[in-house]
Design brief:
- The chain has nine helices and five strands.
- It is mostly helical and about 260 residues long.
- The protein folds into two domains: about 100 residues, Orthogonal Bundle (Arc Repressor Mutant, subunit A); about 120 residues, no CATH class.
- A hairpin with a 4-residue loop joins strand 4 and strand 5.
- Helix 2 packs across helix 5.
- The chain is globular, with a radius of gyration of 22 Å.
Length: about 260
């Protein structure tokens, strides 16, 4: 470059673009780990995801191909092809839907259950990187991811997630000034930002009836650091019948293990 030629200005990026650039690097590692782990077992990442969805289903009537496609954000054709391959591999079974004789639901075979347990294991390299972060940074990261997923969910970009911040058992900011400022009525225990879940099996969506807050209101008080009401946990909702009003420290700890990411 001639000595009098001005240096081209550096390309400026917004904070949002820099965050996305960082997430893309994490996604690259994640995709590589998924392909490597799935390939060792003779599965594609889509097939592995389907096994995980069927294993995590909590609906009594079972889960169909259409629901599976929606949860992993693929077309019906892609889901049907992957389901067919899993049936041929002896990992899935198709059974008649008891509520609709024309439809089928998917269930795991014994081999399928073992494979599904392996597919739910997160890539070790990413888990180690997150574990290496200070706890306060992990909590901040998780809180930010919750907001990001919620925005994409509202725009129809990702399937509906079973998140704390949209659950009728969640009471934000009920214990201000403490390490665990929120309250989960399902386990009747305080929780912090680091305990927030993106996919909780016990999640029950908040509704619009008089006894539960709306989704928008719940999110508003969570973001603004306000309590949902002035009477502490329990006023606007009760723990699910059959769940003890109090739990031992060990039980609470076990309930919070395995926080989804």
């Amino acid at each position: 470059m001639p000595p009098n030629t001005p240096t081209p200005p550096a390309i400026d990026t917004t904070p949002a673009q820099r965050v996305v650039a960082g997430l893309s690097k994490v996604a690259l590692v994640f995709r590589h780990a998924q392909w490597a782990a799935s390939g060792e077992r003779g599965l594609t990442p889509t097939q592995a995801q389907i096994l995980a969805v069927v294993a995590g289903n909590r609906e009594p009537r079972g889960v169909g191909v259409k629901a599976v496609a929606a949860q992993i954000a693929v077309t019906m054709g892609t889901a049907s092809e992957a389901v067919g391959a899993l049936v041929e591999k002896g990992l899935l079974r198709k059974e008649p839907d008891q509520s609709d004789g024309r439809a089928v639901v998917l269930t795991l075979t014994a081999r399928g259950k073992r494979e599904a347990a392996r597919t739910t294991e997160w890539p070790g390299a990413i888990v180690e990187a997150v574990d290496a972060m200070p706890e306060s940074e992990r909590a901040t990261l998780l809180r930010g991811l919750v907001g990001m997923v919620r925005t994409m969910q509202e725009r129809g970009m990702v399937p509906t997630a079973r998140m704390c911040v949209e659950c009728r058992f969640f009471r934000p900011n009920e214990h201000p000034g403490t390490p665990k400022p929120h309250h989960c009525q399902f386990i009747d225990a305080p929780i912090g930002d680091a305990d927030l879940r993106l996919d909780c099996a016990e999640m029950e969506p908040t509704g619009n009836d008089a006894d539960t807050p709306t989704r928008a209101r719940l999110w508003e008080v969570f973001v603004n650091g306000q309590p949902l009401d002035q009477h502490g946990p329990g006023r606007n909702g009760r723990a699910r019948p059959g769940v003890r009003a109090s739990m031992s420290r060990r039980a609470v700890s076990e309930s919070l293990k395995g926080t989804s990411s």
